[in-house]
Amino acid sequence: MKNGVILCVDDERVVLTGLQAQLDRDFGSSYVIELAESGEEALELVDELLESGNDLLMVISDQMMPGIKGHEVLRRIHLASPGTYTVLLTGQSDLEAVIDAVNEANLYRYISKPWQSQDLVLTVKEAIKGFYQERQLAQQNLLLERHNKELEQTVSERTKELKEQMTKSAQLLLNILPEKVAAELKDRGEATAKHYDNVSVLFTDFQGFTKLASEITPQELVQTLNECYTAFDDIADAHNLEKIKTIGDAYMCAGGLPLENTSNALDAVAAACEIQQWVANWNAKRVAGGMISWDLRIGIHTGKLIAGVIGKTKFAYDVWGDAVNIASRMESNGAPGKVNISKDTYELVMEQFKCTYRGKIEVKGKGEIEMYFVG
Q1: What is the pTM of this model?
Q2: Spatial contact of 316 and 341, defined as CB atoms under 8 Å apart
Q3: Rounded distance, CA 229 to CA 240, Å?
Q4: Is residue 171 included in any domain, yes or no?
Q5: Count of CB atoms within 10 A of residue 312's CB?
Q6: pLDDT tens-digit profile of 209-226?
Q7: Domain C-terminal end among 93, 113, 129
């Protein structure tokens, strides 16, 4: 049974055929792959799909098309179906269109032509996973809101306490946004996306997390992750890094934004080394207490990206671009207890940090990339 729809939009039939062949091979058994050869055709098809009650999981659209351009197609689709993930496929460096798509269409990612097959498949998998996770979260939030209303109706004496908690929640939400971005939102009611030329992105991930999570209770899992992420937050803040988000056992932060600087590569590597030292000390205490250790991989890459605020009522500061993808690959191709950095980052920190050259390593969707271990 088909569970959802993936829509591909491109005025070149050969491109659509290529997308369809690849997506059919990897996702055709579970999802419907729809095609449109123009923006106008895509919008009509979206209306039909939504009216029929289909789940429009994601739309992959070319930017340069006759008539309606890709970013405008994605903007209109986002208005009609806010939960749909949008991906812009572009054959040229059209930064303005990408920024428009981020601001107006809640752009999930942009991919340059010709795309890497593995990168495209990974993007689609992550988008489908995100679509259903956000739906589940929305349902849980709806149930929570309903429960809160019932509590307010039946327990009037707690009204003041509930309002205070809501105020605290609002303050905590603002705390996840950079100060500069929060100020812009307060003054203008919105924050525009911005391109950065020099940002260092840091990813962490626990080795064998799925197995670790299966061996403890949910309460212990959340408590343990919270203990680690609280320490990571303190270290990132001390080194002038901006926390971006956590996804399960993955932690992501970046230096050089929203306030640009030239020290972000050094800041990121110093923070990564301190995080690994904290984890080593923490694991030593766990092992001494008869608990299993949680080994951590860290990856860093320095490059160009786009950053901005997504969401309307629940803001989130996020980043997009190839630099993010490469940083993630640095982490996944690293080793427990190590800090793995790209050549771009190495060239900015080599005079301050001793590094060990690992050679050129094959990376999924990116070819060979030169990597270094710090230390």
Answers
A1: 0.54
A2: no
A3: 16
A4: no
A5: 9
A6: 888 888 888 999 999 999
A7: 129
